[in-house]
Amino acid sequence: MKVLVTGAAGFIGSALSMRLLQRGDEMVGVDNLNDYYDVDLKQDRLNRLKTYGNFQFEHLDIVNREEMAALFVSNQFNVVVNLAAQAGVRYSIENPFAYIDTNLVGFGNILEGCRHHEVGHLVYASSSSVYGSNTAMPFSIHDNVDHPLSLYAATKKANELMAHTYSNLYGLPTTGLRFFTVYGPWGRPDMALFKFTRAMLASESIPVFNFGNHRRDFTYIDDVVEGVIRVIDQPATSNPNWNSDQPDSGSSLSPWRVYNIGNNSPVELIDYIGALENALGVKADMELLPMQSGDVPDTYADLGDFVSEFDYKPTMSVAEGVRLFVKWYREYFNV
């Protein structure tokens, strides 16, 4: 297949691109290489991909309507995977327009490209953040998600609605994936594992919000990529049993679906830090703080639909996943 991956220099985007290239797909990667975090890390991820002859990189911003339109004109993509987004709950409070531009305007440009060039399947990143103020556990794709707690979450919910419109109007198969706290080698420096590792190795204290009472469904990067690969190869279909009297939030009469990709095994933040202490051989100096605005105390993915439809469930334990991250971190930063 010929596959477009946006956000190809990002954490999930680069890992997915590697898998696609290794299995022989022709791949175009797009990224704007912004400075939200270390551009050198993004460039190093890209350098790994550039060793493959079936990889082509385009340095552009999905917000640029003309450049995105030209990209679709010059390529006939079978599948588009949109992983380009402004990420982070807390940063959405500081810089809301970054989310409006990339996550809404940029996604609109991708939808238009898919519509006009007969793309066979659009797969895009949603987020566990869409569950917002939901308290029923585990989070199910059949739950209503109309109460987001951050602008980041609202833009991801909006992506699902925008995709549904294009599935309905133009028959474009779209699949949204609600990722749950992805971690692992080549990860994002703005996420807890990366920040905690750096601080602990520097003998600095680490900020632990909600006084350490968070639970997260930590999901290892390789497990996420395997899930995305399976989704790519199985375009969304309509649900002929969908009924407006009892509407299902996870499917539609249109070829539109959303799924959770999580570990289905939430871990206390304190235990996550414990796994990091064991892997580093360093005791954490924890600064216990109240919960931050826009955050949620717990995440927990219901994987029933994903397992039944794709015959796959993540398997990596947090202890092993954190160990593998620490091994990569020490090698990459030579510490």
Structure description:
The structure is a single chain. The chain is of the alpha/beta class and 335 residues long. 40% of the residues lie in helices and 16% in strands. The protein contains 11 helices and 13 strands. The chain has helices spanning 11-22, 39-49, 65-73, 91-94, 96-116, 151-170, 192-201, 221-232, 269-280, 304-310, 318-333, and strands spanning 2-6, 26-31, 55-59, 79-82, 121-127, 174-179, 182-183, 206-208, 215-216, 219-220, 256-261, 267-268, 286-288. The strands form 4 sheets. The chain has a 7-stranded parallel β-sheet with strand order 3-2-1-4-5-6-11, sandwiched between helices. Helix 1 packs parallel to helix 2 (39-49) and helix 5 (96-116) runs parallel beside helix 6. The protein is globular. The chain starts with a strand and ends with a helix. The relative contact order is 0.14. The mean pLDDT is 94.
Summary of the model, kept short:
The chain has helices at 11-22, 39-49, 65-73, 91-94, 96-116, 151-170, 192-201, 221-232, 269-280, 304-310, 318-333; strands at 2-6, 26-31, 55-59, 79-82, 121-127, 174-179, 182-183, 206-208, 215-216, 219-220, 256-261, 267-268, 286-288. By secondary structure, the protein is of the alpha/beta class.
